[in-house]
């Protein structure tokens, strides 16, 4: 097991990564000051529950904890106020009090939903992230929690840090292939924004990583979490630096929304976004070397797309990019590469450059 810390003063917390950690949950919870006199309320979805729900519940009961559980349907539609209300009902019936702890057992959807439950239930109770998807190496760290509104994603939310992240990497073995591929896009993103050693690992150990071989997969997750943890420690509430985590997302979010959520996964959309944003960086001269070619090669090696689907119009994508929260005074702000494994934040991105690149991104 590897451990690193998100440094946030009194609210600092550990991230434990390794195979078989769910079995060691009672011990790891005890280290986070969660003793058996604290009621535990597991939130999970049907897929994850089928595979891991009963085991986790049993390990904890055997260790003397009082454990409740609520299972929601899989998919982002469960990240809603409606489902949140059900969870509150279940938590009240179970007897979750201020001493209680919410356990988010699942991918990013569960992390966000259970995290928001814990941020709002009785004005805030503690929660622990138990990620089970590769994408969740990103979403489980940093304390952004939210549910969706029919008009916009993640608009009802909070900053609420977990008291620990316990990442059992063996759970990834049952993840559907497309979800795994999508998760690799965020791992690649972490390399591209800050860590050449992660990029090397991704390039050199592709087969081992895709095959989820230890210790490579654990190491890649560790490096990804470390970057997220460092950025969050320096800018918890996204006043500036934290925006670098959004590399590939300005174009990616627009593509994801316009393709109709689900047709392209989040990871596939940001893969296309990272190629587009690298091309914009080259056009505007923020980066002098060719990073478009190696970016594409790396993404393709992991089965991710690098071109825009022909059914999306450039002008629609650009219009949608203006919804991005990073924008200032009606001008596009984007995260662009400054080198291989380096990015920065740039204001006033001209529309014609974006349109040109989007056109080229479709043709290739
Ligand atoms: N808070 C943040 O900082 C942040 C960052 C990125 C994304 N997110 C959010 O994360 C969500 C997406 O997360 P996700 O990609 O993990 O999706 P997800 O949680 O919906 O999981 C994807 C699918 O995999 C299934 N699954 C999960 N773990 C499994 C396992 N081990 N074995 C088999 N099946 C498993 C789930 O049931 C689901 O069907 C979105 O809601 C997004 O907004 C949040
Ligand atoms: Zn993302």
What does the largest sheet look like?
7 strands, mixed
Instruction: Please report the distance between the alpha carbons of the first and last residues.
Output: 43 Å
- What is the CATH architecture annotation of the largest domain? Up-down Bundle
Q: What sort of overall outline do the alpha carbons produce when their principal axes are compared?
A: globular
Q: Kindly report the CATH topology of the largest domain.
A: Dehydroquinate synthase-like, alpha domain
Short description:
The protein is an alpha/beta fold. 46% of the residues lie in helices and 18% in strands. Helix 10 packs across helix 11.
Explain what this protein looks like in three dimensions.
- The chain has 364 residues and is an alpha/beta fold.
- The chain has two domains: 2-174, 3-Layer(aba) Sandwich (Rossmann fold); 177-363, Dehydroquinate synthase-like - alpha domain (Dehydroquinate synthase-like, alpha domain).
- The protein has 14 helices and eleven strands.
- The protein has helices at residues 25-31, 46-62, 81-94, 108-120, 136-139, 177-194, 196-204, 206-210, 216-234, 249-258, 266-284, 292-301, 314-321, 351-363; strands spanning 2-6, 13-18, 40-45, 67-72, 101-106, 126-131, 144-149, 152-159, 164-168, 334-339, 342-346.
- Strands 1-2-9-6-5-3-4 form a seven-stranded mixed beta sheet, sandwiched between helices.
- Strand 3 (40-45), helix 2 and strand 4 (67-72) form a beta-alpha-beta unit.
- Helix 10 packs across helix 11 and helix 11 crosses helix 14 (351-363).
- The radius of gyration is 20 Å and the shape is globular.
- The mean pLDDT is 96.
- The structure holds nicotinamide-adenine-dinucleotide and zinc ion.
